[in-house]
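Reviewers of the previous submission asked for a worked example of the structure-prediction workflow described in the proposal, so we include one complete record here. The input consisted solely of the amino acid sequence. No template or homolog information was supplied to the procedure at any stage.
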Amino acid sequence: MTGERIPKLQDETCYGDWKKRVRIWMMGTEVKEEHRAIKLVMNMSGKPEEVAIQLDPEKLGVKEGVKMLLEELDKLFEEDKTQSVFAAIDNFNTYRRAQTTSMDEYIREFQQRYKALKQLRGTQAQELFEDGILAYLLLHQANLDSEQQRLIRATIVDLTYIKKKKVPTRLCVDTTA
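From that input alone, the workflow returned the following structure tokens.
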């Protein structure tokens, strides 16, 4: 299949996300099973590529080649989940709404990054942050001007995330229009 997007693995790529993309790609690809691991290796760079090219190409060029490739990469990347957690924290904590991003898009992205962080921490049922802190982060990272922030803060009676995520969309003029 020409134009097919093969998942890329680089030093800065989240390994867990890459593995999910590989599983999705494998379900929809027309690439023969015995060529899939080779295709994945050819879309790597940095440390992942260094590890992958050390593997015997003959062993990668079989139906179980992707499984063997993932087992080797797991040894390198899954042992230290701490680094993945740090990356997810940075990804969540440094996110700021661009002026061209609508408030709805910003909130969706904020929630998606928070969910990814929770999953890595293994805290599906409980929250990582107290509700008020999460509400504060939502407002703080929204990149609003001081007048918009003042207006939102003035209309909030209690600092809860559920209420807070609705307020910016009601009060802020969509700057993307």
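The first helix runs from residue 15 to 28. We consider this example representative of the routine output the project will generate in years two and three.
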